[in-house]
Structure prediction request, 180 residues.
Amino acid sequence: MIRLDEKVALVTGAGRGLGLAFARALAKAGAAVIVNDLDAEAAAHAVEAIRAEGGRAAAHVCAVGSSSAADRLVASAVEAFGRLDILCANAGNLRDRVLWNLSDEDFDSVVETHLRGTFTCARAAVRQMRSQDSAGRIVLIASPAGQRGNPGQTAYAAAKAGIASFARTWSMECAARTSL
Prediction:
């Protein structure tokens, strides 16, 4: 089993589902975890569950997407646990509609959460990790829908394809530690 003692992780969308599973697994491996969710009650329950299992966790309630939210999330990890070593960019939403029924608002909501939220959180996390001068880990959540498509998931598939491209590009940039 991988041990993550002395590591600090931030998991977006960690109030339930896969995000909660990721947060619990990180905590079981020894990491302190910032649980992010839009739902304050879900975030509080997630923190309680992690603590009941002997883990360390704190909640930060906000919607991902904006740069200011991402900066606050990273700052909350540093304030609560002194650093940030792992980002799991998991937050997402669905507005499943076929193309002719998909509104601009629904499209924008999915792209803002999945794609922009991943971008802003990863950028803020990498900036913090570079300031610590230590290697960190960015875990991005894509989907087969982003590679093959899925009926009714125009926005979701587009966002997940973008996230897969982020992973390929950022792995090269971060490995090279460029300063472009």
In short: The mean pLDDT is 96. The longest helix spans residues 104-132. The chain is about 55% helix and 15% strand. Helices lie at 17-28, 40-52, 67-81, 104-132, 145-148, 154-176.
